[in-house]
Structures are given as structure tokens and as C-alpha cells.
Amino acid sequence: MPNVAVVGTQWGDEGKGKIVDLYTEGADVIARFQGGNNAGHTLVVKGRKTVLHLIPSGILHDNKICIIGNGVVVDPVVFIQEIEELQKGGLFPPNTKLYISEKAHLIMPYHKLLDVAREASSTGKKIGTTGRGIGPAYEDKVARTGIRVCDLYDETRLLEKLRRSLTEKNFLLTGLYSRTPLTADEIAAEYLDYAQKIKPYVADTSMIIDNAMKSGKKILFEGAQGAHLDIDHGTYPYVTSSNTVAGNAACGSGIGPNAINNVVGICKAYTTRVGEGPFPTELTDEIGQQIQRVGQEFGATTGRPRRCGWLDMVLIRQAVRTSGITALAITKMDVLTGLDIIKICVGYKSDSGELTHAVPANIDLLTQYQPVYEELAGWKEDILQARNIADLPANARKYVQRLEELSGARINLVSVGPGREETIILHDPFRD
Ligand code: IMP
Predict the structure, then answer these.
(1) Which of 269, 411, 407, 378 is closest to 331 using CA atoms?
(2) Which pairing describes strands 105-106 and 341-349: parallel, antiparallel, or unpaired?
(3) Nearest to 249 by CA among 284, 223, 277, 219
(4) Residue 200: which of 291, 102, 297, 295 has the closest Cα?
């Protein structure tokens, strides 16, 4: 039985939510393996708009097992809020199970304060984070001072860990950022209350996934953010604090790499980016504004407008390589309808005129590079009704074909509108 990982190939916001929702139909277990509530999927179900930041969107389907893996950083406040929201809306199906790894690290109040304080500091370099405490929580994980879900069920240990952490955090909060200090007792009281609320969901999720695989169930690993926000392979330091590439689906959910058979890369038909950082194909003109308006490119988590630009195949090719992408899903094709000319970046030119096809490790160089474009004729016909590749206008078909050639990965799917049915499906990753 093939298991599938779905990852973003750009800077996040590629439209993974819709594709994960589609693939969930064919899966039994849906597992998140990295990131936290910096992600965001807007879902419209039963006419009600629901935004999920932490819980996998598979939760909306009956008879599924949804997992928040050990690699995710969990804000218990958000976890509880999302469960309550879902229950209130009658959106938590009776036969669907939700589990959270006992090894997942918790986002603590000081993580959120430090994230926001650092970004606001006049001396610090702004990353444009989502301000949800994601980076500081991962820092503590690596520094071996993090607090994990399992720590919530040992009060003495929790208090001891909190006191140790606060010695340093309060020093930073008061001394460097002029904030008020926090007390271990107050945080412990708050988190012990959360502990009771989340207890029914806490489990050894690695074991649950393993058992599911042994009984022939199909697993969908749901990535968050995108390849170029990866802590190792992204445009460092303008990245998130976890590995977003598909390899982390194994580490972040406690299974071996050979359990992942297919990797689907989600590739928006153009590029967007939220927050700071280099963006070679960014459009600051009317076309960029049109793409932003038509594509409703505003962040689901922070509401910030997304920067928009042409599709950059240098980025996509790197994502294919670093995630072992076996197929691409092209999203938001309809947003390009009406443009006379559509450009695809196929390489970069340096100041000295040298041509490169790689993203440089030193992002100062990337800022100086000029994109080299191939130009394709656009299409005017509405493509919302297209359900087969043959239904697309010839120029839209040429665009898809060119993406396949340039990426070296076959195209599995083309999304032509926000609705589930507004999709051209070419291959099912659970079958081939
Ligand atoms: P952090 O993940 O909040 O630390 O933010 C680090 C960078 O990643 C910032 O540029 C954010 O805008 C970006 N980022 C984090 N999560 C997402 C996402 O889900 N979509 C797009 N960008 C994101």
C-alpha cells in the first residue's frame, strides 16, 4: 500500500489544504510532522468557514485517524480552541480519531513573547515570523530545555523544568526586551489545566502509525510551509524553524523513510511569499497586484498580503531534488486566466552575466540575481469547468506541459478553482 507525503515546493501557501483534503478521501491516517500553528488552511464545510492551523484538515472526514506527530510544536491553547470550534460546528465526525504525540514539544507563553519581542526589536533582523512562538519553541527543543506533552503529566518535573527555563527567559524578557517577567507557578497552573483537556488525545503516535501500516492502512503525511522555508534547504535565515522537506515526514512522525512511497509537491502556478526574504521573480507592478487580487493572496494565519510573482522553476527543481518529489500538483491555474503573456523563470543571471540554475546558499547573491524568463502566450477562456486536460485551452495545456518538462516530475493534478470538483486529476498517488 503506498503512503504519500504532500509538501510545498515554494514558500508555503501553495494550496496544500485543498489537495490534502482531496487525497484524504483515499487515506486512512493523516499525519502532520512539522511546524505548528504558523500554518493555516481555510476550509468551507457545510457553508461554514473554518480555519485550522494545527489539527490536520483530515479531521473533517469521517472514519479517519488524524495525528499531530512528534515533530510538530504544539500550542495547547490553539489545540483546545480548534477542537472546541470543530465540536461547536458539528465538524468532528463521530468515527474520526485525533491523537497528539506525547513527544511533541509545547509552545509556552515565553516562546510567543520572545518571538514577538525579537521581531519588534530595533536591533534585530526581521524575519517576518507569524509571531506564534514557533522558532523559540524549536530552539528550546534543540537546546534540550523544551517542555514536551508528556511533561504535563508530572507536576514536579514540569515545575522544575519551568523554573530552570524561566531563569534564562526572564533575563531576556526583562533585560533585553523590557517585558514583565513570568512565574513558573502561574504557567504551571495554566498548563496543568490544559493537560487535563488534552489528555484523551495524547498517545504514542509513532506506534499508532506503525500499527496502521502493518494492517494495510494508507498514510498521508501532511507537510506545512514549503521547501524554501526549510531550515536547512530554504533561503536562510528567512525560513521557518523546522525541516519542511519530505524526509522530515519520517523523523517528525516516528516511522522509517522507506514507509514513504510517493511524494507529491504542491506547486502554485505562480509564486508567493509572506514575510521578509529574497524573491527573484517578485512582481511589484499591476500584474503582481492582479495576481494578488484574483488569487486572494492574503495569509490565512496573519492576514498579511502575500508578495506575488512569476513561477520560478529554479526553486521548483530544487524542491523536487531535496524532497524526492515523484509528482507535482499544480494549483490555482485559474488565477492566470486573462494574462496576455505568462513568464516562467528558468534560470538566474548574476551581475557578471553568468547564468546559473541553482539557488545559491548565500542569499545576498540571490538578491542580486536577475531572473531569466521564458515567455508563453496566455489564455482568455474560463477554465473553471475543465475536468480533463483536453478541456484546457491549448495555451494552458502548453503551460502545464512546460512545467512538467522543466521540473522533471510528472504532473498528477491541475487545480482550476477552489472547489473540490474544480480539479483535473491525472494520477492517484495512492495507486501509481
Ligand atoms: P515562523 O514560522 O512563524 O517562525 O515564520 C518564519 C517565516 O516563515 C516567515 O517568513 C513566515 O511568514 C513564514 N511562514 C511560516 N508559516 C508559513 C505558512 O504556513 N505559509 C507561508 N509562510 C509561512
Answers:
(1) 269
(2) unpaired
(3) 223
(4) 102
Give CATH for domain 267-425.
Answer: 3.90.170.10
Identify the pLDDT of residue 270.
Answer: 98
Residue nearest atom 15 of ligand 1, based on CA coordinates? 38
pLDDT tens digits, 211-239: 999 999 999 999 999 999 999 999 999 99
233 counts as catalytic: no
**CATH 3.90.170.10 residue spans of the chain:** 267-425
Does any ligand 1 atom lie closer than 6 A to the CB of residue 60? no
Angle at 309 between CA 308 and CA 311, to 5 degrees: 125
Q: Which residue has the CA at smallest separation from atom 22 of ligand 1?
A: 12
Q: Distance, CA 239 to ligand 1 centroid (Å)?
A: 7
Q: Is the pLDDT assigned to residue 5 strictly greater than 90?
A: yes
Is 351 among the residues known to form the active site? Answer: no
Residue with cell 509564486: 271
CATH of domain 105-197: 1.10.300.10
Instruction: Give the model confidence (pLDDT) of 10-67 as tens digits.
Output: 999 999 999 999 999 999 999 999 999 999 887 776 677 788 999 998 899 999 999 9
The C-alpha cell that represents 84 in the structure block? 472546541
Task: Kindly state if the Cβ of 240 falls inside 6 Å of ligand 1.
Answer: yes
Please give the full DSSP string across 392-424, using - where no structure is assigned. Answer: S-HHHHHHHHHHHHHHSSEEEEEE-SSSTTSEE
Using a 6 Å cutoff on CB, does residue 403 contact ligand 1?
no
Q: Which amino acid is at 278?
A: P
CA distances from 82 to 30, 85, 206 (A): 17, 5, 23
